[in-house]
Structure of Alpha/beta fold hydrolase:
Amino acid sequence: MRAVGPTPYVRSVPSSAPSTPGSATDVGPGYRDHLHWQRYQAFFPGALRLSADNAPDEQWWQWRGLKVHVDRVERAGAPAKVIALHGVGTYGRMLAPYGRLPALADLDYIAPDLPGFGLTGTPLLGATYSDWLNCARDLVEREKARDSRPVVLLGVSTGGRLAYDVAASTEVDGVIATCLADPCRDEVRRVLAARPEMARWAGLLSLVREPLSAVRLPVHWLVNIAAVSNQTQYANLAWADELAGGGWISLRFARSCLSTAPALPPERFSGTPLLLAHPDEDRWTPPLLSEEFFDRIAGPTRTTALRGSGHLPVEESGLADLDRAVRDFLDEFDLQG
C-alpha cells in the first residue's frame, strides 16, 4: 500500500484522552459526543444495529480548508471498498447499518459527512452541490491512490444522484443507488421540496445574489424531511437532528442542488455498472422518477425494488432485497477483487 498525500487521515481517539496537536480531540468532537445517531438503531434489524462497541472508526480529513469527518471500517483481507454517500438531511453515520449488510460485511466501508452535514463544516458562504461532488470525487481519488482494490459507490437518497455524478467524472468500479431522480425536472422539485408550491422557488433562487445567498434556513423548512422514512418516529428523529434535518443550509446550497444538471447525460453513461435499488413505497421520490432517468442509461445496469420500504430503507423486507441485489451485482461484475 502506497503512502498518500501530505494530509493523511487523522484518527479519532476517546474523548477522555488528552488532546495532542493533530489529534481528533484537537480537530473536533466525534460521534462519541454527538449521540443522536444511536436513536436510529432501534429501527434496523438487530444484526445491522450499531453501538458504541461496534461503531466505525472515526477519522478526519483536511480537504480544501474544511475538516471532513469520515467513518471507516477496515476489514482484514477486504477485496474491495465501498464508499457510502448520504443525501440532503442525513449524514454518514446514519448509513453505517448498511455497511453491516451481509453482502458488504467483507468489504472496507467508508462514509464521509459531506460539507454542511454531520460533523463536517461548511465554507463561509455555505456549501454548494459542487462542493459535495468535488469532496466525494477527491475522496475516491484518495482511496484509489492508497491501493488498487475496486471502489464501489453506495449512494442513498440524494447520494444516489451524487454517486452517479462522481462515476461520470472519475473512474470507479460500480455504483449502487437507491434514487436517481434528476432535480432539474419540475416534477422532481415538487416532491423534494417541503411543500410542492416551494418548487417554484427554484427560479427565484437564481436571482439571489451574494452575499444574500449565504442566508441559512433550517433544512426541514426547505426539503421534505418528513418523508425520509415511512416510520414516523424515525422521520421525526431525522427532522429534529441538528446534524441532519434539524440543521441549517444556505440558499446557495438549495439553489445549486436544484439547478445542477447531471454530470453526464444518461445516454452517455456507458462505462460503469450501475444498480438501482429503489424502495417501492418511497413517499419522497416515487420510483417512477428514478426509473425515467435510469431507463436512459447506456451502460450495464440492473434494477430491483426494495419491497415495503420507504425513502431511507429500514424495513427488513427491503433490506433483504437490497442485500440480495448487492451480492448479485458485485458477483456479476466481479467487483470484489
